[in-house]
């Protein structure tokens, strides 16, 4: 007697479904990320360095979008389609290795990670990005081409105030930071007491302010505008108030401003110590 | 098993309660705001700086004090001021010199005419080494160095509030308040005795060498 064969219900091709949904969403979302979200991704275009960082952030976000979508689509599909109906919990079919899928997965992820590493490394050492990596001390690896003609500005942190010194203008120290537009700036960052961190995020500049240390960052402002200066290192009671507003001025306006600062602070400039990249201020400790 | 779970739940509840109590105490433990006296649209703020507070909880700490409109001294560094007003400050300074860590702050900034007076004499720049304290409001661009009394003063003050019969310097200046808001002020001389860098203790605690201007 011939056995009767009961046909199994046909299983949909889940992989093709998932890839199809993912591809459709990717085609929609990637342009949205580039053209709608992209222009709003910080830090903007206030300087050569911030433009470079903005471009990197847009590239990374764009590359991450299909990956995130794949994870979300798979989760959504699995939760919706693979949900166990009824009360009985039944194990699914055993999964066997699939060499083609594993090879594809390893190849794609390796290419993405290694590609980003190469891209980031090249960009880190490029002249346009010099300035982003403050914290390498007085002789950073990446320097702009015209470093010799850069305007030197010193940023001095102390609990809880930023002040700024201009060695090219008699070593005058100011309570506000102003920079000329379209000129390379060499920012030397140090501290008089504890560790602070100078962060002008709209300019794409961040460097630790460490007592006895000279951290150099470079920036070339490209827009006449104001920018925020914050402390990015928890430094005590008034850390949250250790901020100020800096300004990028036209060359003539900067000339007028620095001349006015030299005049206003002429008397106290005589009391300042000679300009130095680091200071060892006293008193370190007040006697009881 | 049930007893053990109940014990754990009770211990957890007690622990959470203690954390909430500690946090509440920390967040609400600020000195009271003291109003300046206002006459004819001008606010008058009278302050004193003392080398040692002389009382619990920290008798050895340096501190500011403020006088209320009735003339009583309060151990507070939160001052209420009217907005868009002229404020005249009289500051009795009883402490000796410590010296500024950053001599830039020896310059008077942000006062009405760019000057202050020390014992009746106008000045725009003090000696950095002779500074005992500063009264500085960074957001307003206001900073006035306060010169210390001689270290060989014969009649120094040892406990607040200090009477005018003790050796002191009198510093006066005026400034204008902006719109309503809360503005941080602090002393920029590392004046916290016995603390490394001079910036611990009273420099890190509201109510001693820093506080707020509550402008309304």
- Name the CATH class of the largest domain in chain B: Mainly Beta
Q: Pick out the low-confidence regions of chain B.
A: none
The assembly state of the depicted protein chains is heterodimer
Strand content of chain A: 15-25%
Give the second-level CATH assignment, the architecture of the largest domain in chain B: Sandwich
> Which chain pair shows the most residues in contact?
A-B, 30 and 37 residues
Total separate domains of chain B: 2
Query: Could you name the CATH class of the largest domain in chain A?
Result: Mainly Beta
Widest sheet: strand ordering of chain A:
3-2-1-5-8
Low-confidence stretches of chain A: none
Strand content of chain B: 25-35%
Find the count of extended strands of chain A (DSSP E, 2+ residues). 10
Number of domains of chain A: 2
SS-based structural class of chain B? Answer: mainly beta
CATH homologous superfamily title of the largest domain in chain A: Cupredoxins -  blue copper proteins
**Biggest sheet layout of chain B:** 8 strands, mixed
Which of globular, elongated, flat, extended, rod-shaped describes the shape of chain A?
A: elongated
Keywords:
heterodimer, A: 288 residues, alpha+beta, Immunoglobulin-like, five-stranded mixed sheet, 5 helices, 10 strands, B: 216 residues, mainly beta, four-stranded mixed sheet, 1 helix, 14 strands
If you had to describe this structure to a student in words, what would you say it looks like?
The complex is a heterodimer of chains A (288) and B (216). Chain A has 288 residues and is α+β, with helices and mostly antiparallel strands. In chain A, strand 6 and strand 7 (205-209) form a beta hairpin. In chain A, the strands form two sheets. A five-stranded mixed β-sheet of chain A has the order 3-2-1-5-8, with no helix packed on it. The N and C termini of chain A lie far apart (108 Å). The model of chain A has no long low-confidence stretch (mean pLDDT 88). The longest helix of chain A has 34 residues, at 48-81. Chain A is built from five helices and ten strands. With 216 residues, chain B is mainly beta. Chain B folds into two domains: 1-30; 33-215, Immunoglobulin-like, CATH 2.60.40.420. In chain B, strand 10 (131-137) and strand 11 (142-147) form a beta hairpin. Chain B has one helix and 14 strands, in the order H-E-E-E-E-E-E-E-E-E-E-E-E-E-E. Chain A binds chain B through residues 156, 158-161, 163, 173, 175, 192-194, 236-238, 241, 244, 265, 267-268, 271-273, 281-288, and chain B through 60, 98-99, 101-104, 106-107, 109, 124-125, 127-128, 136, 138-139, 141, 143, 184, 186, 188, 190-199, 203-206, 210.
